[in-house]
Predict the structure.
Amino acid sequence: AQSVTQLDSHVSVSEGTPVLLRCNYSSSYSPSLFWYVQHPNKGLQLLLKYTSAATLVKGINGFEAEFKKSETSFHLTKPSAHMSDAAEYFCVVSPPYGGATNKLIFGTGTLLAVQP
Amino acid sequence: GAVVSQHPSWVICKSGTSVKIECRSLDFQATTMFWYRQFPKQSLMLMATSNEGSKATYEQGVEKDKFLINHASLTLSTLTVTSAHPEDSSFYICSALSPGRTEAFFGQGTRLTVV
């Protein structure tokens, strides 16, 4: 069985300061991991994905995440927050590509607020 | 590439009526699409998996007669909320798997309000 836990429901940072959104996963096999961003009343946009290649994954808008198997973590970071980064962020786990269901398991989301 | 379009973006309907939401893959063929429901300030809940040319697979607790899913072509899946009630008001999002890609692509969502 797979699951994903986002440790913080809300994170608030000041513009220009680093962002850290935490995610831990549980999987009985090597998973694929994703971070999606959702702006209010919008669909989801893929920020980055890990699919068993490089453990440090770089995504769009300056975000990156590091897959740490020993810690079962996939935390999302950005060196310097921008006001436009304010949104809901979802950590997502799925079976490896070609898995039985390709179902995505969503974390509960982290709402990022960026203060001026 | 890999664009998923959902229509309408928002809809208001009266209790007892039915509402159809469309999910289209614009530049790829999607044999599998997914329908999610999202309550305010909550995560996405998978409702069903839509397979082209066959019946949808519903998650436990989702009423298949209430939420009719049709995936008649490789680029279109529809979700019909039948006999809608205020408690069906929610944000509905579809996603599609693009062949050869490892991530799902999401539509922009449909805000349904039942009055």
